[in-house]
Every structure is written in structure tokens, then in C-alpha cells.
């Protein structure tokens, strides 16, 4: 995903209009993505490493695992409801990132591998990339954490070698729904806790809304 900037859930678009600031009409669609964020101490450490390899996006893109990459949707409300439903069915889980890999020569990327939590990431991706977010992807989904992208080959080599013994384990209890705005910034629209239903997803009697 591209640059990320956090906004509050109250900035989420309302029914019948496109998200604020994206300059698009509903017929043109809305570009969204879904990611897993990391604890601040892990994210900050990985950003320092990414910067050390000369990656210009190190200070803009927080470390994360992408569940849904840039995807166009025509219906914001259906998309938000869909992502909320998936989140409500997912229990919190543990992620371990360990060792390095690369997408070279197809793409100039070095990444940290997802060990524990790999299956949960794949399952979430498969559930999310349906309904309003269904589309064909150019490559099979592979959970990973980018640590160097589009830098000199020797820097990619360095990243792959220096972090080959890196390991971090942490709990994941939510996922973020983002919108890609006209400035190329990923705006957080909602951070959705796993295993819970939002109050506005429940009917008058407390039962989950059937929509």
C-alpha cells in the first residue's frame, strides 16, 4: 500500500455520497484497502531498518501486513458492512514475523516472512476479497512485511541478509479499513476489532442487523 495517514472513524463517508476529499462521484468508485497494524515498538523498529536501506517510503508507510491491496468498490456502505462482518467473525490471533524473503526478479521487494498467523491472514484475505471487494488479482496473495522496495540491488541484498535472523511476535486484535485519496494517501476510515459487533450493527432489540 502507499502512504498512510490516520483519520478518525467519524470522517467515514455517509450513505449516498463518496468519501470526503476524494473528488470522485460514487459512479467512479472508491479505492480501499485493509491492513493489519503492528505494535508501535515493532513498527518503529522496522521503519528504522527500512530507512537504513535507503527506502524513501520508510517515513511514510508504517510497517503492516496487507490483507486487501488497492481495490475499487462502487458501494461504500456495502463495503464497510462487509469488512465489519468479517472482523466480527475473526478471533484475535498471534503473529510472528521471522526471516526474510524476496519477490525478485518479478518485483524489487525484500520482506519479512509471516510465520505464526500466516493461515489467519490468508483466511481473512479470502473472506474480504469477496462481495463488494471481489476482483481478480495479478498474483496469488502472500502475507508479508515489506522492509525494502524499489531501492538499489545492493540495498535489497543488504536488507535480505541483515534481517535474516529478525524475529518478532505480537497479538493482532483488529484490522484497519482505509481509503486511498486523490493525494495518494491512505486514510484510515475505521479500525475494526476482531470478534465484536459495533453498536450500529445491531437492531433495536439488540440483535445483529440482518442487512
End-to-end Cα distance, whole Å, is 30 Å
Number of DSSP strand runs: 9
Question: How much is the radius of gyration in Å?
Answer: 18 Å
Largest sheet: 5 strands, mixed
Helix/strand structural class: alpha+beta
Number of helices: 4
Strand order of the largest sheet: 1-9-8-2-3
Helix content: 10-25%
Query: Quick one: overall form?
Result: globular
Low-confidence stretches: 2-26, 202-211
Write up this protein.
23% of the residues lie in helices and 30% in strands. The chain has a 5-stranded mixed β-sheet, with helices on one face. The protein has a 4-stranded antiparallel β-sheet with strand order 6-5-4-7, covered by helices on one side. The chain is globular and about 45 Å long. The protein contains 4 helices and 9 strands, in the order ββαβαββαβαβββ. With 211 residues, the chain is an alpha+beta fold.
Quickly describe the structure.
The protein has helices spanning 40-52, 76-89, 118-128, 153-162; strands spanning 4-5, 30-37, 64-73, 93-102, 109-114, 144-149, 167-172, 174-180, 186-193. It has 211 residues and is α+β, with helices and mostly antiparallel strands.
Name some characteristics of this structure.
globular, 211 residues, 9 strands, five-stranded mixed beta sheet, 4 helices, alpha+beta, disordered C terminus
List the topology elements.
Elements: E1 4-5, E2 30-37, H1 40-52, E3 64-73, H2 76-89, E4 93-102, E5 109-114, H3 118-128, E6 144-149, H4 153-162, E7 167-172, E8 174-180, E9 186-193
Parallel strand pairs: 1-9
Antiparallel strand pairs: 2-3, 2-8, 4-5, 4-7, 5-6, 8-9
Amino acid at each position: 500500500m502507499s502512504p498512510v495517514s490516520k483519520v478518525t472513524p467519524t470522517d467515514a463517508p455517509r450513505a449516498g455520497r463518496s468519501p470526503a476529499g476524494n473528488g470522485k462521484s460514487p459512479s467512479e468508485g472508491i479505492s480501499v484497502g485493509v491492513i493489519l497494524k503492528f505494535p508501535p515498538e515493532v513498527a518503529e523498529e522496522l521503519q528504522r531498518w527500512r530507512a537504513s536501506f535507503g527506502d524513501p517510503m520508510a517515513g511514510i508507510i508504517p510497517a503492516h501486513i496487507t490483507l486487501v491491496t488497492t481495490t475499487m468498490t462502487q458501494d461504500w456502505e456495502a463495503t464497510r458492512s462487509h469488512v465489519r462482518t468479517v472482523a466480527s467473525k475473526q478471533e484475535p490471533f498471534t503473529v510472528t514475523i521471522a526471516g526474510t524473503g524476496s519477490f525478485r526478479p518479478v518485483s524489487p521487494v525484500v520482506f519479512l516472512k509471516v510465520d505464526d498467523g500466516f493461515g489467519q491472514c490468508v483466511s481473512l484475505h479470502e473472506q474480504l476479497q469477496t462481495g463488494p471487494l471481489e476482483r481478480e488479482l495479478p498474483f496469488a496473495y502472500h502475507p508479508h512485511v515489506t522492509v525494502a522496495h524499489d531501492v538499489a540491488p545492493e540495498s535489497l541484498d543488504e536488507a535480505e541478509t541483515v534481517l535474516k535472523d529478525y524475529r518478532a511476535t505480537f497479538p493482532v486484535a483488529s484490522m484497519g479499513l482505509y481509503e486511498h485519496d486523490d493525494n495518494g494517501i491512505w486514510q484510515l476510515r475505521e479500525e475494526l476489532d476482531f470478534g465484536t459487533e459495533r453498536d450500529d450493527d445491531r437492531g433495536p432489540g439488540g440483535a445483529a442487523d440482518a442487512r
